[in-house]
Amino acid sequence: MKVLIIKLTSMGDLMHALPALTDAAKAFPGIEFDWVVDEAFAEVPKWHPNVRKVITTSHRRWKKSAWQTLTGGELRQFYRELNLDDYDAVIDMQNNLKSALVSKLRRGPVYGLDKDSCRERPAHLAYQYPLSVNPQQHAVDRMRQILSQALDYPLPKTPAKYAANFSKYPLPELEFALPERYLMFVHNASWLTKLWPINFWQQLVFQARAEGYAVLLPCGNNEEYLRAQQIASVDPMAFALPRLGLNDIAAIMHHAVGAVCSDTGLAHLAAVAGTPALTLYGATDTALIGTYGKHQQHLVSEFNCAPCYKRKCPLPASRNGEPLCMTEMTPEMVWHGLQPLLAAQ
């Protein structure tokens, strides 16, 4: 069997789909998937052993230079590649307007969520085979249900398995030797309301160093690198990692003893890698998008207004939109929550 998956972004959402492919591979041994994904996250689908080919889009770049995209041939090349192979099923597992547009460019019928289940209307109009899935459940469960309905196999009752094997990825060459025992501190996030204060991260570095752990801090851009350097400045065995590819970060995360994470894509990478991790939540809801898997724990704000899903804190006491709910979670609370995960290793 050969199946085309359409799921473009974002990093964590892509990882949430991996267990569904594992289910399908158990139901149909030898099944192969091709996957349409944004070029920024092209590594993620390849982590699953049943993914044969990745077809990339670049919606942000195409939107910024629409005329060049239309006249330069890139869109025509994407259309040809999208329709090059025949598939037993084509399934949109993202079900928003961007993925619906890609679904319309694919010749032939497409499976996708119906109007009561899809994330963005009128995306459901792009699908010839509508599926009904309760949107008020965790993303991993939604993805597993979508694929089981589309391919018509019983939904497994077994725990979700990502099936990624990061031990095959070599560790990247860095300007320093990787320590033997290190923790990953995923300090960055795309929303201000997901960020834990820098001085709290610094205090957590002291806690980790007192227990003999080195600390590595990943980053995705220059601003995050500067933030990582500021956190790492308090101890010579805390290191701000340079900007690395996802495969490199995956290899480093796989070898980490544990991790403390903001609510961001790399927190879900810890789950995929099987690295014990404590993830901090304030503005967002763990029931829908919390890290999912073995040795994954959540520390959730008890503020009455959480989760608010706001990118800036609206409370009068907030300074420049910084989240008050995240300051409620002290370094002592975080370290206390992490210790049982480290002890389980």
Automatic annotation (TrEMBL):
GO biological process: lipopolysaccharide core region biosynthetic process
Pfam family, one: Glyco_transf_9
Pathway, per record: Bacterial outer membrane biogenesis; LPS core biosynthesis
Statement: the UniProt record of this protein carries the keyword ATP-binding: no
Annotated NCBIfam families: heptsyl_trn_I (TIGR02193)
Listed InterPro entries: Glyco_trans_9, LipoPS_heptosylTferase-I, LPS_LOS_Heptosyltrfase
Family statement drawn from the similarity comment of this UniProt entry: Belongs to the glycosyltransferase 9 family.
Catalytic reaction equation(s): an alpha-Kdo-(2->4)-alpha-Kdo-(2->6)-lipid A + ADP-L-glycero-beta-D-manno-heptose = an L-alpha-D-Hep-(1->5)-[alpha-Kdo-(2->4)]-alpha-Kdo-(2->6)-lipid A + ADP + H(+)
Organism for this UniProt entry: Methylophaga muralis
GO molecular function: ADP-heptose-lipopolysaccharide heptosyltransferase activity
UniProt KW keywords: Cell inner membrane, Cell membrane, Glycosyltransferase, Lipopolysaccharide biosynthesis, Membrane, Transferase
Transmembrane segments: none
One GO CC term, this protein: plasma membrane
EC number in record: 2.4.99.23
CDD domains (UniProt xref): GT9_LPS_heptosyltransferase
The protein's name: Lipopolysaccharide heptosyltransferase 1
Top EC class, one word: transferase
The encoding gene: rfaC
Cellular compartments annotated: Cell inner membrane
Membrane topology: Peripheral membrane protein
